[in-house]
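[Meeting: bench + compute handoff]

Bench side (C.D.) handed over the final construct sequence. Compute side (W.E.) agreed to return the predicted structure before the next meeting so the bench team could plan truncations. Sequence as handed over:
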Amino acid sequence: MTLFRRIIATDAPTAVILIRLMVGAVFVSEGVQKFLFPEDPGLGAARFAKLGFSSPDFTASFVASFEITCGALILLGLLTRFAVIPTIIIMIVAISTTKIPLLLQSGFWPMAHEARTDWSMLLGSLFLLWVGAGCWSLDALLVRRNEANHG
């Protein structure tokens, strides 16, 4: 089995689709909203400006593009292990730039409340990195077709 096939191969159960739907849909939605509402201080370029990023317009578009693209790949179960790597990085940056300062300023419980989605997306992405897309995915279909063609 080639390295590529080993990376996309998955023997995870069908229920993994629920995690893919959650993670993929949230990333697609958040990415689209960054483009739709750039002036919203909680969503688009305004948020990145508030956080002190030097090029907030570029950063918002860059992050949104990855969120939409990777979220769509996750929803399809296509190249899932590759697609979750940027989402993991996005969530680590989001937690370190927004939730750690909140923890230091306001304490654990306010941070825990605000971090619930970030934490869920990080853990969901890590889960998909670990187990793959599951049997109801384009990754699994590609592996099955490849195995059928190469016997």
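W.E. noted at the follow-up: The longest helix spans residues 80-106. C.D. will use this when planning the next construct.
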